[in-house]
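Module 6 notes. Inverse folding takes a fixed backbone as the condition and produces residue identities as the prediction. Think of it as a translation problem where the source language is geometry and the target language is the twenty amino acids. Below is one complete input and output pair. Work through it position by position during the lab.
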């Protein structure tokens, strides 16, 4: 396994990564992006085991509902880079179980890759979303043939790919880019049916980073996003050579969607598990700010918080249902239940903004205008800020202000805006979750039940 320092050193590998117009040659030393490196390194140290054959529990393949239940809190503790790596490994496991009549070497390569990545304790990010061009046109019908990542040449020992994958979480902070088709492909789209593992420092890979990381000098004004932020990468494959042993699909259109569907399952499971704690945080802030404002006993405030509790509880229930109803694949790996994962992820994403709306409604305008922590240290206005932010003898004005700053950071500033969009889009958007829910919901059984209580038989229905 890698120590935090070894992880940091491993990023100094010549990768071509950019931020706001400049190439970053030393990622760990960058004042803003280096913060992401630092706490990813901390999680390496936290889970480090010096035994020569140790495998990080973060990269293990779950084999039962209990394993799944135990893995998710570990991943939440270890942060985004662990999340995306784990779901990449689980995706390959899932894909291998679903690809039945393909070249056996694809399956062998995936298995070897999983074992090697576990041994070397690397971090893998997920490159699925293409630039996509005109959304109404298929990959082969785009004005620019590179709108979807494709194979531009096949050589004796590997393939060359070109295209771009956008919005890739943590792309510059991992070691490999799991590059897979974003959708199903049709005959004629063989070149777009490509799945492979590309090292971040491969020649021709360029990554442009974007981040919501706060730029304020005083990190106290961003108590949440000031601690953890994970830049997204705009990943460009400018004719990148990939050796055969890292290619898991090349040309088999009928299997292009298997990768996206398998990743969707694990990505949404991760999203759902994050919603569970996020929803509880929103409830917690709503209650705390109501108490600080002196409104906790007012009926409409209690009703809003009760509604938030119901949403938080249903999100938790769908995660538990997804785990308890997991299935076990042919080689013993456990897969969460598709229906509960997708319905739960949809429910959490669709209701997140309603929960935030209630929180803002309860908290009041001080979410945006409370004096900053540093103002409380000013000799001239500090005590006055404390006096007028207080709502009574038992509510310290500075405490109430800090509460407002946390709510602002989480829901109403750069990170809050990022979250509002991310919750909807990451993991494939609400539309994708509706489709998968529909595919796995037992509609026939629902129809039979409806006919039965209507006193009709299946023969009466068209
Ligand atoms: C912060 C963040 C992190 C992300 N991390 C990753 C990551 O790590 N890896 C990764 O691969 N992706 C990642 N994504 C990308 C995410 O999966 C996509 O944003 C999402 O799938 C939507 O794709 P899009 O952004 O291209 O929007 P679009 O595809 O343009 O979608 C916009 C809307 O148009 C609809 N639409 C588009 N095309 C069609 C169509 N043909 N028919 C019907 N409706 C259509 C969609 O349903 C949606 O409602 C991330 C996104 C965000 C915001």
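Target side of the pair, the amino acids:
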């Amino acid at each position: 396994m890698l120590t935090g320092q070894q992880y940091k050193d491993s990023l100094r590998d010549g990768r071509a990564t950019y931020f706001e117009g400049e190439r970053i040659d030393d990622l760990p030393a960058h004042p803003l992006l280096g913060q992401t490196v630092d706490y990813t390194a901390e999680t390496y140290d936290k889970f480090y085991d010096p035994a020569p054959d140790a495998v990080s529990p973060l990269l293990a393949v779950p084999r039962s509902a209990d394993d799944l239940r135990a893995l998710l809190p570990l991943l939440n503790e270890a942060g985004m880079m662990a999340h995306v790596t784990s779901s990449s490994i689980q995706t390959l496991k899932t894909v291998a179980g679903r690809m039945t009549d393909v070249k056996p070497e694809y399956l062998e390569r995936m298995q070897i890759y999983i074992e090697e990545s576990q041994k070397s304790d690397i971090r893998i990010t997920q490159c699925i979303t293409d630039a996509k061009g005109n959304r109404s046109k298929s990959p082969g019908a785009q004005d620019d043939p590179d709108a979807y990542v494709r194979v531009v040449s096949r050589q004796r020992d590997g393939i060359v790919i070109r295209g771009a994958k956008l919005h890739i979480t943590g792309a510059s902070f991992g070691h490999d880019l799991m590059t897979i088709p974003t959708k199903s492909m049709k005959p004629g789209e063989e070149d777009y049916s490509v799945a492979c593992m590309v090292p971040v420092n491969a020649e021709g890979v360029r990554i442009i980073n974007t981040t919501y990381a706060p730029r304020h000098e005083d990190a106290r004004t961003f108590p949440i996003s000031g601690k953890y932020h994970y830049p997204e990468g705009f990943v460009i494959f400018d004719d990148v050579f990939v050796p055969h042993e890292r290619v898991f699909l090349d040309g088999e259109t009928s299997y292009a969607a298997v990768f996206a569907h398998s990743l969707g399952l694990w990505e949404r499971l991760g999203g759902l598990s994050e919603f569970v704690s996020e929803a509880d945080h929103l409830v917690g802030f709503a209650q705390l700010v109501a108490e600080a404002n002196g409104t906790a006993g007012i009926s409409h405030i209690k009703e809003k918080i009760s509604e938030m509790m119901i949403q938080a509880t249903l999100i938790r229930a769908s995660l538990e249902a997804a785990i308890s109803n997991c299935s076990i694949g042919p080689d013993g790996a456990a897969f969460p239940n598709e229906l509960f994962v997708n319905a739960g992820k949809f429910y959490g994403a669709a209701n997140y903004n309603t929960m935030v709306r209630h929180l803002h409604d309860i908290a009041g305008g001080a979410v945006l205008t409370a004096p900053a922590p540093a103002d409380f240290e000013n000799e001239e206005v500090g005590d006055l800020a404390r006096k007028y932010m207080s709502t009574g003898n038992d509510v310290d004005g500075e405490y109430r202000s800090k509460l407002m700053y946390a709510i602002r950071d989480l829901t109403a500033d750069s990170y809050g805006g990022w979250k509002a969009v991310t919750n909807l889009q990451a993991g494939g958007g609400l539309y994708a979750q509706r489709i998968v829910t529909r595919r796995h919901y037992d509609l026939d059984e629902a129809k039979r039940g409806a006919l039965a209580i209507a006193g009709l038989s299946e023969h009466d229905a068209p």
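Reference fact for the lab report: Residues 92 and 110 are 6 Å apart (CA to CA).
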